[in-house]
Amino acid sequence: MAILRFHALKESITYKPNTFIEKGKRSELFGTNVFNENTMRQYLTKDAFKGVKSAIEEGKKINRNVADQVASSMKDWALSKGVTHYTHWFQPLTGATAEKHDAFFETLEDGGAIEKFGGSQLVQQEPDASSFPSGGIRNTFEARGYTAWDPSSPAFIYETTLCIPTIFVAYTGEALDYKTPLLRALNTIDVAATDVCKYFDKNVKKVTSFMGWEQEYFLVDKNLVACRPDITLTGRTLLGHSSAKGQQLDDHYFGSIPNRALNFMRDLENQCMLLGIPAKTRHNEVAPNQFEIAPIHEEANLAVDHNSLLMDVMGRVASRHNFKVLLHEKPFANINGSGKHNNWSLSTDTGINLLKPGKTPMSNLQFLTFFVNTIKAVYENEELLRASIASASNDHRLGSTEAPPAIISVFIGAQLTKVLEELEGVTKGKLSPEEKTDLKLNVVGKIPDVLLDNTDRNRTSPFAFTGNKFEFRAVGSLENCGNPMTVLNTIVAKQLKEFKKEVDVLVDDKNFKKDEAIFNVLREYIKASKDILFEGNGYSEAWEKEAKKRGLSNNKNTPEALKVKVHKSTINLFEEMGVMSKIEAEARYEVEIESYIKHIQIESRVLGDIARNNIVPTAVKYQNILIDNVKGLKDIFDKEYTNLAKEQLNLIKAISQHIDGINSNVTKMIEERKKANLLTDVTKKAEAYCQNVKPFLEDIRYHCDKLELLVDDELWPLTKYRELLFIR
Ligand code: ADP
Ligand code: MG
Q1: Complex prediction ipTM
Q2: Is the CB of 214 under 6 A from ligand 1?
Q3: Distance (Å, whole) CA 621 – CA 635
Q4: Mutate which of 209, 280, 343, 463 to test ligand 1's pocket (most atoms within 8 Å of Cβ)?
Q5: Could you say which of 3.10.20.70, 1.10.357.10, 3.90.550.10, 2.160.20.80 is the CATH number of the domain covering 31-177?
Q6: 208 CB under 6 A from ligand 1?
Q7: Whether residue 59 has pLDDT greater than 90
Q8: Closest to 153 in 3D by CA, of 135, 115, 179, 172
Q9: pLDDT confidence of 246, banded at 50, 70, 90?
């Protein structure tokens, strides 16, 4: 093994970066491999174009005739670009993307062949996708899954394949993917928010949810990763002593981007341009070899698709630069891990960002309405929002003072805090003309266009208002954004629906003026949801205590966090909002909890193997060298040798102790795994893995890492942190 490490080191040190040559102006490349509106206009008949447009904008069904036309044009377009295959591209509950390619090519009876692609192949496919997690849905109903075209996310060409974004559902209609519930949630927030907008502007017909993600990642030399079975199999290092220099000097963040990484980024961004992913910013992150990419925000469904696509493309592009991209939330101990901020806002079809303070008192009242309702929604559903980002890998990051804690709170900044305080003082019931004028002029009218906290915002908050959007900062880097985006949009939709009901009662039954009613309801909301607001240091222990007093949840691990997903209130919420049925919600819980179990199980097996098969034999080898040395000293020096060999003797003992530490802990860990595996209840099994198996990962690692410091570097089989993090 050590041979492999030194071979890898030599390869990576002598590697010559692959210079990426830009293919042209980005604006000209943008979307060239996307069957977007422009392309459709060129390729589709007027009728077909209208059909697709109304499907995208109003969710109307596409008839067979139009589907046939679209398919035929898509095929012509794709063939003109050298494409050979097509695939329905979807996002099963594994979190990754899935595709099964079919060739356009078909044989004819006369022995000839043609390229074929019809409406039926575009609209629906039945991949034999029986191996994707379904949480029991397909077993129960013995139904297969099928994929169905989502016209709101345009088809695109990746390399030589035409990819058609689709949903993935069971024949009985239950969703088996991330996209289906997301589309339902986006629809429900459109309806709820449009209704509320009508208080302010009767012309609003549609509200769209927008999302802009920021994706953090690590780049590590591919050869160096190849001698790390832990990274290869689990995406993170399960052992490895910290490098003497890590991120202490803060010299990586926003530093000049290393040449090879820059070439990777340029290559990646070019791919993004072709695929219509509006990549905009790139920079070094806090940890060595850690970077970030962020696009311009887009309609949420498209943004989620683009993030999923990006994660896939990143891996392939990295390969060309001899890198492996690590998307795991905590690839290395003791330095920062990676997250994925989800910036979220709502906009009307009249062009108004509902989370941006406006220029007039009325537009600001509209802003405050959406602002306060979002805060209330987060307050009422903080535990569910936490659950939406729960995973074995994100558990490493949340609450370890590099990312938000597992407690959900909302940061709004000093100026808006003051505005809410003033609104809290609004008189109950009808307002005097003086009070109304005062509110309009001095409170609502005075929300500044540019909020000061905008720039100086609290980096420790999981959910921060950042001037014209909320930034959900606790999302894991590896996660499919569909999950948190479904929850966020659903809870805000539900809240807006309640709000509308309450305001209408005041207006219709109590003769309140519209603005009076809104002020009255908002006042109560501000009072009721105050406990979710927090401006202080989210990393501090004091906040943990304070949050507990306020009754906020602090679910530190996934099994704890996921429970709320099957609470009656959650199921009612999803059912009421038409986002998920009880069966779907329960199935998802099952899939996620099983995934947790499997992740810990795999990590535990991998570490057990490495510790016993790589670390212990290496330690024994070195110990034998020491023993030979001691024996030799004894031969030469006779009595004097005990003094001369003192250090060696201590080392021999220390090595034995660590070997014992490894072996006894691996044995105990295997015992615990066996016990956990016997449990049939998935929740109990997950808890057993969390409480009884997982702690051994740390114990075993401790001994391995100590040995790394003791054993001769030349014998050490695994690439070390300093190599993984500083060779670029
Ligand atoms: P920072 O790292 O300081 O948060 P970035 O510029 O890296 O800032 O990220 C800003 C993110 O916010 C981008 O992903 C961008 O797409 C997104 N964004 C900007 N405006 C909006 C908006 N109105 N709605 C949703 N997302 C937005
Ligand atoms: Mg950000």
Answers
A1: 0.94
A2: yes
A3: 21
A4: 343
A5: 3.10.20.70
A6: no
A7: no
A8: 179
A9: confident
